Amino acid sequence: MSTPISWQKATFSGGNGENCIEVGRQADSIVMRESDDPDLIITTSPAKLSAFIQGVKAGEFDHFVS
User: Fold this and answer.
1) Are the C-beta atoms of residues 18 and 35 closer than 8 Å to each other?
2) Are the CB atoms for 39 and 55 separated by under 8 Å?
3) For the residues 22-38, what does the mean pLDDT come to?
4) Average pLDDT of the residues in 41-60
5) Which of 10, 29, 33, 66 is the most exposed place for a label (fewest CB within 10 A)?
6) Which neighbouring-strand residues pair with 30?
7) Distance between CA atoms of residues 53 and 50, nearest Å
8) Reduced to 3 states, what is the DSSP secondary structure of residue 16?
9) Is the model more confident about 20 or about 42?
10) 3: which DSSP letter?
């Protein structure tokens, strides 16, 4: 039996709990889901998530939203 995931969301999301990305840890993986579709879970490694966050901070994906 697997351990239940303890989901976290940013405090920036407010109290309504809608339209939030939630992040958790499962064994050696990072798991993510969107609060309005909690059955769809994306799994990645801590290293890949770190590289993604660094890319976001560096502006590598800004062209997607401008």
Assistant:
1) yes
2) no
3) 93
4) 96
5) 66
6) 25, 44
7) 5
8) coil
9) 42
10) P
Query: What distance in Å separates the CA atoms of residue 24 and residue 42, rounded to the nearest whole number?
Result: 10
Kindly state the tokens that stand for 50.
């770190």
Percent of the chain scoring above 90 in pLDDT: 65
pLDDT at 1 over 70: no
Long-range contacts of 34-38 (CB under 8 A, 24+ apart): 35/9
Helices (H), the chain: 46-57
Give the CA angle between residues 55, 38, 31 to the nearest 5°: 40
51 token code pair: 């590289």
Q: Report how far apart, in Å, the C-alpha atoms of 57 and of each of 43, 50, 51, 60 are.
A: 21, 11, 10, 8
